[in-house]
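Notebook entry, structure prediction.
Reason for the run: the old model in the group folder had no record of what sequence produced it. Starting over properly, with the input documented here first.
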Amino acid sequence: MHIAVVDPSRTVLKCIERMLVAREHRVYPFTNGADALQHIEGDPRIDAIIISAEQAVGSGSGIELCWQARLLASSYRPIYVILMSSHDGRKTLVEGLDSGADDFIAKPPLAEELYARLRAAERVTSMQRELIRMATTDSLTGVLNRRAFFARSQQVCDRAAAGVPISVIMLDIDNFKRINDRFGHSQGDQVICRVAAEAQKDERIVARLGGEEFAVILEADMTAALEIAERLRADIAAFVFDTPKGQLTVTSSFGVSEWRDGDDLDELLRRADIALYAAKAAGRNRVVADQPGLWVMDYGQHPTVIRNAARSVPAA
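New structure, fully documented this time:
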């Protein structure tokens, strides 16, 4: 485990560090609670913190640190909090548990007792991580599901107020029903997984929104997002699947939108979705950028206007 330890005594820190390192834990010692919290906030690898109830003046009480550490945990990040105190009175125990501690241990801790409590912590955090994985990822592809994507994307969009360029790419596999009908649903699932893996390269935030449709959110302007979408389009078009019914190739259509002043996440996705439908109407296997006026087009009556808006990539 990656464990932060907070105690005003460097001697106590060294003692606990030796015990933890002996069991191959990674230890981050701190004499100041504020420094520990800052480090934990920026390091998602830390999954446990041992907090001394007896803190130095100006560092905040151990009870307060338990509460602040609990606030750093979220539905997407488990943090196991152990309060450590040289006073094993019931009041300290109750206050610690009520303030967010998961466990309590006497100070200085006995090595075997500390190891046993950390084994319990590993069981709990492992179970929590698995529950988080199940709740946030698409079971077929392993990318984010719709709910998790909206939560992660909102965090990205919040940075737009600071001037960070934000764009969304919507992509949909072309003629997917035909793939299922001709090659079977098992082969269709393989296509979906391959497309998801390609979209997720470079640690992008990607979600399967449903069926064969995916969304990607990027810290990038329209020009950069279009380049990424075009590379994805070309890479997917180059896929070749050998099946019992012959070789299978696939194409995808893309819609791209960039954050505008006054936007919210729903509006950003709505414009990308409209651009995606324009790409479909213009012949598929192409990338269309959101632009003013695109939303008023009647795709059935004005296909020429849509084709002019689309990038000149021939349909497969």
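Summary: The first helix runs from residue 10 to 22.
The old model has been moved to the deprecated folder.
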